[in-house]
Design goal:
With 310 residues, the protein is of the alpha/beta class. Helix content is 39%, strand content 24%.
Length: 310
């Protein structure tokens, strides 16, 4: 089972607004409302692709009830820890005419020390059946920057591998706890390494530095340019196929979903990078994080190659 953790879960509301501009009133052409947060997006994509998954984290209030009920309706198993405060709302405004995306993301509820201890106890029980734990997204208010590091150490103690997809101080402190894989985007990796990563050679050198410092595996996503990833067996580049993009929201989460499934099924790092890239490309052709088509993934995966760099 793949355990997907979303500590700052959300209700994701997407508006399709043609010709959107700030400071004006518009009629919304289309509205989509889904449970969200990066870990939930990953869980949705894994479920769509036929994987065994469980979503967990914190939820609260009316938004939390919606998240739980809608996940059940989508056939995504979940087991969340309830808190009194309301789960957050995120709004994405997509303008198909100008090919623009605007995001408004609430901070979300604060988590107290007692709730955090309850979650760690819950997490320990869920780890007993997990092959891989995926820790994704921002930390809610009230939690220290080393919250993910605590969960990583717990998982490592049970032999469960961890994939960490976050940013800023949470990524830096999480890295020190030695997750199996980290998946920053270029900007997040630059913050982690404290240097620019412009060009393929710079990204490769950044991955080499992380591997030399003890990180087991790294995948740096480059948006429309694909991904470069490395582990002890080498470093590979996978170029993203050209597709008609409807929304980039959740593309990185689709990559994580595909990568994880391919790794569990085949144990081949380059193949996991390739399949994850196909999932990310399939994801951007549709509005809704994790709402990809397995047939699109299979078609795109046949067009993608993993090129070994070192």
């Amino acid at each position: 089972m793949i355990l997907c953790v979303t500590l700052n879960a959300a209700v994701d509301k997407t508006y399709i607004v043609e010709g959107f501009r700030a400071g004006e009133i518009f009629r919304v052409k289309e509205v989509q409302v889904l449970p969200g947060g990066k870990g939930i997006n990953v869980a949705r994509a894994i479920r769509v692709l036929g994987g065994d998954v469980l979503a967990t984290g914190f939820i609260g209030g009316h938004n939390g009830a919606f998240i739980e009920e809608r996940l059940a309706a989508e056939g995504i198993p979940s087991d969340f820890v309830q808190i009194p405060a309301e789960s957050r709302l995120t709004v994405s405004i997509i303008d198909p005419i100008n090919s623009s995306e605007t995001g408004l993301y609430e901070q979300g509820p604060a988590v107290c020390a007692e709730d955090w201890e309850r979650f760690k106890e819950h997490f320990a029980v869920l780890l007993e059946k997990a092959e891989i734990a995926i820790l994704s997204g921002s930390l809610p208010r009230g939690l220290a920057a080393d919250a993910y590091a605590e969960l990583i150490e717990m998982a490592r103690g049970t032999g469960c591998s961890v994939i960490l997809d976050t940013s800023g101080e949470a990524l830096k402190t999480g890295l020190a706890a030695h997750p199996w894989l980290i998946k920053p985007n270029r900007s997040e990796a630059e913050g982690l390494l404290e240097r620019p990563l412009e060009g393929v050679s710079a990204v490769v050198e950044g991955i080499k530095k992380l591997l030399a410092d003890g990180q087991e595996a790294v995948a740096i996503s480059l948006g429309k340019d694909g991904v470069i990833g490395g582990c002890g067996y080498g470093i590979w580049r996978v170029r993203a196929p050209q597709v008609h993009a409807a929304s980039s929201v959740g593309a990185g989460d689709a990559f994580v979903a595909g990568f994880t499934l391919a790794w569990l099924r085949k144990g081949d790092f380059a193949e996991a990078l390739r399949y994850g890239t196909a999932c990310a490309a399939a994801s951007v052709t549709r509005v809704g994080a994790g709402m990809l088509s397995p047939s699109d993934v299979e078609y795109l995966s046949r067009t993608i190659k993993a090129e070994k760099i070192t």
